[in-house]
Specification:
This protein has about 150 residues and is mostly helical. Helix content is about 40%, strand content about 5%. The chain has a domain of about 100 residues. The strands form two sheets. The chain has a two-stranded antiparallel ribbon with strand order 1-2. A two-stranded antiparallel sheet has the order 3-4.
C-alpha cells in the first residue's frame, strides 16, 4: 500500500492515476493495527464524479490467523491441489471472517460493512447519503485521512 501510494504520487506523471491517502510510515500501520485487520482507505470522496477523486480501497491483510498460503514465492510456478486449497481457504477466511482486536473476535456485521464499502462510490455518484448502518461501518473501518502526506515536488 505504501509503495503503491509512492509510485502513484512520486513516480507516475501527475494526474495519470490516483490513490487514497495511506499512512506512509510502517510503524503507524503496526501501531494502529492496520496490518492485522481490514481497513478502508479513501472513505471521504472529494467529488461526486467518477471514483470520487480516488478509489475506495478495501485492505484485507494476511493476519492474524491466516497462514502465509497467500504469499508464496514469485519463483514458484506450480502448486499442488493441497497448496491451492490452502490458498483459497486462507483467502476465504480473511475475506469472509476476518478477526479483530486482541481477542481476535469475528465482527458479526463484517459482511454488511464490506457491502457498504463495495457500493459506496456508486452511492456517492448518485449523491445519496450513507445509511446509518454504513456510517457505523465507516466509522469502525475507515482510515481517517488526517495524516499529513508528502506533496509532489
Amino acid at each position: 500500500m505504501i509503495n503503491t501510494w509512492l509510485r502513484i504520487h512520486k513516480v507516475l506523471p501527475s494526474g495519470s492515476a490516483n490513490f487514497p491517502p495511506v499512512p506512509l510510515q510502517p510503524q503507524v500501520w503496526i501501531d494502529q493495527g492496520f496490518n492485522t485487520r481490514p481497513t478502508f482507505f479513501g472513505c471521504n470522496a472529494s467529488s461526486t464524479q467518477g471514483n470520487g477523486g480516488y478509489p475506495l480501497v478495501v485492505y484485507l491483510p494476511n493476519s492474524p490467523l491466516s497462514v502465509s498460503a497467500t504469499n508464496p514465492s514469485t519463483f514458484k510456478l506450480q502448486y499442488s491441489d493441497k497448496d491451492r486449497d490452502l490458498f483459497l481457504r486462507s483467502v476465504t477466511n480473511s475475506t469472509e471472517r476476518p478477526l479483530f482486536g486482541p481477542k481476535k473476535i469475528v465482527d458479526g456485521n463484517w459482511s454488511t460493512c464490506l457491502s457498504c464499502a463495495l457500493i459506496d462510490r456508486s452511492r456517492n455518484r448518485m449523491n445519496v447519503t450513507r445509511s446509518p448502518v454504513c456510517e457505523v461501518c465507516f466509522e469502525r473501518y475507515c482510515y481517517h485521512d488526517g495524516v499529513l502526506q508528502p506533496t509532489r515536488q
